[in-house]
Design goal:
By secondary structure, this protein is α/β, with parallel strands linked by helices. The chain is built from 13 helices and twelve strands. It has a domain of about 260 residues: Alpha-Beta Complex (2-enoyl-CoA Hydratase, Chain A, domain 1). The two termini are about 50 Å apart.
Length: about 375
């Protein structure tokens, strides 16, 4: 295993990762990378369940292989491409899906999105998310691709467990975000870690001399304590990336989560209905049940009935008001029109006149039945 390469991608570089994820990685893997015990300042490590592997290894010409029909880029269910976004997210890698080591590449997800956009058999895209985030490089560019795809075909995001940090940047570009009651979303922020090995090296009798050209070339090296000026530079870089993160989220969420609202979360994470109230998601539902509704909508079929009363109640309870928008249309070329009679029952129902004083009111004919909603209309 290439430990120096892994260390280079983790330390002294901003990450779009949940703090607990970063701390857990350093606590568990840091001693192998750095050769000794690791002390983590300002964070506590928590145990995280390992995502199930769904790797499909390809050669480096991903899109050419897919176009040639030699590889299947995704699972397709009734015209809906299912694209998982799971594990630790990194920039590049010549494969699609999650690797056996538990990471997935933005490059591979991009290849899947390109194939879905080009396939005439795909009428909608479902993003299945369970990730604590990952690298900055490539994340915002992938978010732009998802937003562009959603202008062509409906894209829904289904959070199966977590969509934190970089994973939420991806989910935020979907037309609609579904979150389970115990699912998590958010962590709109940036984290950067510096490993100071100076004391360990000194104890082992090793002194490293850094020779560089350029006043800042050696900034943040692991062989000396982090100078305050360098810390401030890294802090400034993190703040700039956080601003870009919030702007990217707002591009996808629109009025549901503005730049100011995204920044105001201060990288907090939200569970279930809290995420809906904060504008980070659109409804609380079981991901599988919501996916069935999405497939039915894409294929012009009636939505399946809720499986249990409790699920129906949970979904009704979680229907957002100001933070919600209607789901995307089944086809990009024929957007669904709002039902003209959605408010007709209140407007057309006649108001009975008050009874005349000291005289019985004349018999009134029965009130006409209110018109029914147009076929296919639904509450969002």
């Amino acid at each position: 295993m290439d430990y120096p390469q892994i260390a280079q991608r983790v330390f002294h570089t901003p990450l779009l990762a949940a703090p607990a994820k970063a701390a857990a990685f350093v606590a568990g893997f840091g001693p192998r990378l750095l050769g000794g015990p690791v002390t983590i300042e300002g964070a506590e490590a928590t145990k995280e369940a390992r995502s199930r592997p769904v790797a499909s290894v390809l050669d480096e010409r991903l899109e050419d292989e897919i176009r040639a029909g030699r590889r299947s880029p995704f699972r397709s269910i009734d015209g809906v491409a299912v694209i998982p976004v799971t594990g630790s997210l990194i920039h590049r890698g010549s494969y699609i899906g999650e690797s056996f080591s538990g990471h997935q590449t933005y490059e591979g997800i991009s290849a899947q999105l390109t194939a879905a956009a080009e396939s005439p058999m795909v009428r909608g895209v479902a993003l299945e998310l369970d990730s604590f985030g990952g690298e900055v490089a490539g994340c915002f560019e992938l978010a732009d691709e998802i937003r562009a795809l959603s202008a062509q075909k409906p894209v829904w995001a289904f959070i199966s467990a977590h969509a934190f940090s970089g994973a939420y940047a991806i989910a935020s570009q979907a037309d609609r975000i579904i979150i389970p009651r115990s699912g998590g979303a958010g962590s709109i922020g940036v984290i950067c870690m510096h490993a100071d090995q100076s004391e360990r090296l000194e104890a082992s009798g090793v002194r490293v001399t850094v020779i560089s050209a350029g006043a800042h070339k050696g900034d943040g090296n692991p062989y000396e304590p982090l100078p305050e000026a360098v810390r401030e530079d890294l802090q400034r870089e993190c703040e700039d990336l956080r601003q870009l993160f919030a702007e990217t989220v707002a591009e996808g969420r629109g009025a549901r989560l503005t730049v100011e609202a995204a920044l105001a979360t201060e990288a907090r994470t939200f569970i279930g209905g809290q995420a809906v109230e904060a504008g980070l998601a659109d409804e609380v539902d079981n991901p599988r049940a919501a996916f069935e509704r999405f497939v039915a909508q894409i294929n012009g079929r009636p939505a399946p009935a809720p499986r249990t009363a409790s699920k129906q109640g949970a979904e009704t309870m979680s229907e957002p008001t100001s933070t919600s928008t209607p789901p995307a249309s089944p086809t990009a070329s024929a957007p669904a029109q709002p039902a003209p009679s959605a408010t007709a029952p209140e407007q057309s129902a006649p108001t009975p006149a008050p009874d005349a004083p000291q005289a019985p009111a004349p018999p009134r004919p029965p009130a006409p039945a209110p018109p029914t909603s147009a076929p296919g209309s639904r509450r969002s």
